[in-house]
Design brief:
By secondary structure, the protein is mainly beta. The protein contains three helices and 14 strands. The strands form two sheets. Strands 1-4-5-6-7-8-9-10-11-12-13-14 form a twelve-stranded antiparallel barrel. InterPro entries: CHP02001.
């Protein structure tokens, strides 16, 4: 399950910053949220729950101006952080340009936290994403990955095609590179997935195959940071 951002959500969000929220009437704001469950919380191909189930939820507060703010949380099983819960806070701006606003975009700052753990586990990451037709491209960057004073880059391309009404084929490929990838794995690597998704009775359902091209020396089949290929099943409800 990818952490927060997708075209549906960005299209729904008008967005806001906290400062704007404090001075703008509530009637102009929109609050939305999502709760879901997945058989394995994978972040850029790597399990954050040691291959076990995760319950995840988000809340977003947005305005027609394009600014937004929100939070996302999940249970985790991360020995490196000795963490049981992850809560991420994010804020940014979403808009569109081109003929008939054909190209949508969003700029987001995400702050990763692990409540109850040492301050050193927290770090900030910036992303810039573009949406055109059925494609989504995003570039992520942090200069302080895991508060270790190393940079990490992540480039991703996503594609979703509705092959019959309310059913889509979804494909994703992402490239992890920089000193942060070297710190974790000693190599840059690609994560990828392909699957199908639909919505039934207001519940979003998806099933996908997910894997990485990490070398065999870095393959982890069980426990924290599990990264072997897996079938990922997710159910979520947006409100």
């Amino acid at each position: 399950m990818y952490k927060k951002f997708n075209k549906k959500r960005i299209a729904q969000l008008a967005g806001l910053t906290l400062a704007t929220a404090l001075i703008t009437p509530l009637a102009q704001a929109e609050v939305s949220g999502e709760i879901g469950v997945t058989n394995d919380y994978r972040f850029r191909g790597i399990s954050q729950t040691a291959g076990d189930f995760a319950v995840q939820a988000s809340i977003d507060y947005s305005m027609e101006s394009g600014f937004f703010i929100g939070a996302w949380g999940s249970n985790v099983d991360d020995e490196s952080y000795d963490a049981d819960v992850e809560v991420d806070f994010y804020a940014g701006y979403a808009g569109a340009f081109g003929e008939d606003d054909a190209v949508e975009y969003d700029f987001t700052l995400t702050y990763y936290t692990y409540p109850g753990q040492d301050e050193s586990t927290k770090y900030l990451e910036a992303s810039l994403g573009f949406y055109f037709a059925d494609f989504h491209f995003a570039q992520w960057y942090t200069n302080d990955y895991a508060n270790a004073d190393v940079s990490l880059h992540y480039s991703e391309l996503n594609y979703s095609y509705e092959f019959i009404e309310n059913w889509s084929i979804d494909a994703h490929v992402g490239y992890n590179y920089g000193d942060g990838a070297d710190l974790d794995w000693g190599e840059n690597y690609v994560d990828y997935s392909i699957g199908v998704s639909t919505e039934i009775g207001g519940v979003g359902l998806s099933l996908a195959w997910l894997d990485t091209n990490l070398s065999s020396d870095n393959e982890i089949k069980d426990g924290p940071w599990k990264n072997e290929g897996t079938i990922l099943a997710t159910a979520s409800y947006a409100f």
